[in-house]
Amino acid sequence: MIFKIYTFGCKVNAYESQSLKERLLKEGFQEAEGEDADIYFVNTCAVTNEAERKDLQKVRSISRNHPDKPIYVMGCSSQIHKEYYADIPGVKGLVGSSNKNIIETLFDQGCNTIADRVEEDSRHFSYQDTPTEEGEKNVRGYIKIQDGCDNFCSYCVVPFTRGNSRSRNKDSILRECSSLLKNGIKELIIGGIDTGSYKNPLDENYRLSDLLSDMLHLSDTPYRIRVSSIEESQVDEKYIRLFKENPDKLCPHFHLPLQSGSEHVLRRMNRKYSLSDFEDLVKKIKDEIPFAAFSTDVISGFPGETEEEAKETYLFCQKIGFMRIHAFPYSERPFTMAAKLKNPVPVRIRMERTKRLIALSEENEKEFRNLLKGREALVLIEGKNKKGLYEGYTENYLRVEVPSQEDLTGQFVKVVL
Question: For residue 38, how far is the Cα from the chain centroid?
């Protein structure tokens, strides 16, 4: 039987789809090379209205183009809006954010009725382990260590789709990391929904810094570790010291979600820090780890955001010098407090403010590259691009192209920036 998996949304979704793919292959299934398959899986996202539109568009497209094939839907959108999918012809199975680890068993029940395994209570999930053995592009491997979130930022639907914050057993994580390294992975990317809240379920005093410490000695072959994202409030002295003392293993790239550079907007967003706290942390990291890179997420056009508040965000991002800004227009989400706020910002203005931040991001990256000009960097080559050049990322997450007649894929290459 030939399968096809479509994945929308975050790296955690991609990781869970990878796990499903590996399980199916072990059971003797074959992955489709094109669009045609015997069975379809769609892993959905619900972070924005646009994300859910794309989810539904894909499921309806499969239903229309392959009317005799079963479709199984999973993920955040089906967790909160399973009714969107239940009536689409061809949909034979539904799970939400829970039970992704058993979705492939649903078609054993036959295709006459819909197998609905969406848990009604999304706030009390248990952690479901879905380890992988392969990585992204067979060079970089993402490892999920945590799921869910308890922060309840006023704009975010994730606590209602992904449920409570819960963590994975550290022994399971370390086994997966070792397996990935044995299979040729050279960069371990540690992530989750709220990665910095990680604590070993068997020992709550064992936190993210302890896990990273244990990951430093997994193999004698060259490899490095990157943390995908961490909140400002979750970075402590121990965490910074660990990066400072292990520059050969821990990538000096800190993705710190900001969301807004206006104190008033941060309060309405129910974020857990002040701008002065954020700025002080960045300064401390820069003092301890010269040439560290900073990236962030910013939401434009939050309800009630004035032009002055948007300008404050722009200037704060400029001041911090984020080398990459992931800017998004605000999107109303069900169940959230922000969806009830008055004074919505027109979509056109949300988009204009987003574009300004994206332009600033491009300027900041150029400045950061100029700052590093003439310095040595270590690039992990992922493969050739369309121009015939090998490319990959430096330890501080700059993409670099390298010309070579030799196949450099999977190798660490020293370059002068």
Answer: 29
Tokens in use for 26? Answer: 């072990």
Is residue 125 within 8 Å of residue 97, measured between CB atoms?
yes
Contacts of 114 (CB under 8 A, 6+ apart): 86, 91, 92, 93, 94
Token pair 């050969």 is at which residue? Answer: 248
The pTM of this model reads 0.94
pLDDT tens per residue across span 288-335: 999 999 999 999 999 999 999 999 999 999 999 999 999 999 999 999
pLDDT of residue 135: 78
Query: Cβ distance 145 to 190 under 8 Å?
Result: yes
Residue 395 identity (one-letter amino acid):
E
CA distance 123 to 125: 6
- CA pair distance 368, 294, nearest whole angstrom: 10
Residues 6+ apart with CB under 8 A from 293: 252, 253, 254, 323, 324, 368, 396, 397, 398
For residue 176, what are its two tokens? 């997966």
How far apart, in whole angstroms, are the C-alpha atoms of residue 39 and residue 103?
A: 12
User: What is the residue-averaged pLDDT of the chain?
Assistant: 95
How many C-alpha atoms does 22 have within 13 Å on its Cβ side?
A: 14
Which letter does DSSP use for residue 340 in this model? Answer: G
Using a 10 angstrom Cβ sphere, with 0-12 exposed, 13-18 middle and 19 or more buried, the burial of residue 329 is buried
Cα dihedral 167→173→174→178 (10° resolution):
-170
Q: What is the amino acid identity at position 178?
A: S
Q: Are strands 91-94 and 71-75 parallel, antiparallel or unpaired?
A: parallel
Structure tokens at 266: 């941060």
Nearest to 43, CA basis, from 12, 65, 22 = 12
